Amino acid sequence: MQFVIGDSMKFKVRIERDEDGWYVVTVPALPGCISQGKTEVAAKRNIKEAIKLHLSCLAEEGVPIRPEPNVKEVTVIVTA
Questions:
Q1: Which residue from 79, 60, 43, 59 is spatially nearest to 9, judged by alpha carbons?
Q2: What is the pLDDT of residue 4?
Q3: Cβ–Cβ < 8 Å for 51, 65
Q4: Domains of the chain
Q5: What is the number of helices (H) and of strands (E) in the chain?
Q6: What is the DSSP letter of 55?
Q7: pLDDT of 5 over the 60 cut
């Protein structure tokens, strides 16, 4: 399936602050998709661009980018 500009997709991202004070953002659903920014706002803006580029590369390689219709993703919390 091809990603078309204008399509909307929702991704969970992980934001961490590194030892230099930069905000580093990763996308668990897209291994290798990472960006950063001096502020959290900048990091979020940058990861959006990184996601678009990542999805474009996957589409060019013919890798499916949408989840299967019968698969449901949920978040669970485990307490030790």
A1: 59
A2: 54
A3: no
A4: 1-80 (3.30.160.250)
A5: 1, 3
A6: H
A7: no
pLDDT, residue 22, reads 98
The answer to whether the CB of 43 falls within 8 A of the CB of 15 is yes
Residue linked to tokens 């602050």: 17
59 phi and psi, to 5 degrees?
Answer: -65, -40
Q: What's the rounded Cα separation, in Å, for the pair 59 and 61?
A: 5
Cβ atoms of residues 37 and 26 within 8 Å = no
User: What is the per-residue pLDDT for 67?
Assistant: 61
Tens-digit pLDDT profile for residues 34-50: 999 999 999 999 999 99
